[in-house]
Specification:
Helix content: 10-25%
Order of helices and strands: HEHEEHEEEEEEEE
Number of domains: 1
Number of helices: 3
CATH architecture: Sandwich
Distance between the termini: 29 Å
CATH topology: Jelly Rolls
Strand order of the largest sheet: 1-9-6-11-4-3-2
CATH superfamily: q2cbj1_9rhob like domain
């Protein structure tokens, strides 16, 4: 699967893979989303604030070195993917950060880029979808755009699926969902974060 993701990223800048996390593991991960989450904010450093007209998700940052034990296979997968992308494309990826995210019914995230204006170290974005069930009627699609503001792909957040894309090249948005949408979301960086 890592080979397929790398080939997709080379050819089109993104990759969507289904059935990366099986249903049994999704069930085992469900208690992670019972923990205390914080409202996601927009802005940088001291300018960070909650603005539900832009972003309505709730997040819990994780330590990739000491993640919850149940997420060990996903962390190892991300390290292997990072190594493969570095070997193939000389990206200089050195670290990654991630958080659990949940979008409650009615939540969304308007179109945005994962690269900060004053910090261009985010190179690869990834999202594992960790809810156990999802129907098209629930919404919550991830819509990725090219730099010309044209829709490249609309992705239904299927349980256990994974999207990986070049952070700089694809602005994206999360459409309104009618059920709780759960994910492990993060970014591979070209600098050491810790």
């Amino acid at each position: 699967m890592i080979d397929q993701i790398a080939r997709d990223v080379q050819q089109q800048g993104w990759s969507f893979q289904q059935n990366v996390v099986d249903q049994l593991r999704l069930k085992d991960m469900a208690p992670l989303f019972d923990a205390e989450f914080n409202p996601a904010k927009v802005g940088k450093d001291t300018q960070r604030q909650r603005n539900e007209e832009i972003r309505g998700d709730w997040i819990k940052w994780l330590d990739p070195i000491h993640p919850p034990g149940i997420l060990g296979p996903e962390m190892e997968f991300l390290r292997s993917l990072q190594n493969e992308l570095n070997q193939r494309f000389y990206l200089g990826l050195q670290d990654f950060e991630c958080h659990l995210a949940k979008y409650l019914s009615g939540s969304f995230y308007v179109k945005h880029s994962d690269r900060f204006e004053k910090d261009s170290s985010r190179s690869i974005s990834f999202v594992f979808y960790l809810h156990q069930e999802w129907k098209e009627s629930y919404g919550g699609e991830l819509v990725i755009y090219n730099k010309n503001n044209e829709i490249v792909k609309t992705i239904l957040p299927l349980p256990g699926s994974l999207i990986v894309f070049l952070s700089e090249d694809f602005p994206h948005e999360v459409k309104v969902c009618s059920e709780e949408r759960r994910s492990l979301t993060g970014w591979m960086h070209t600098k050491i974060l810790t």
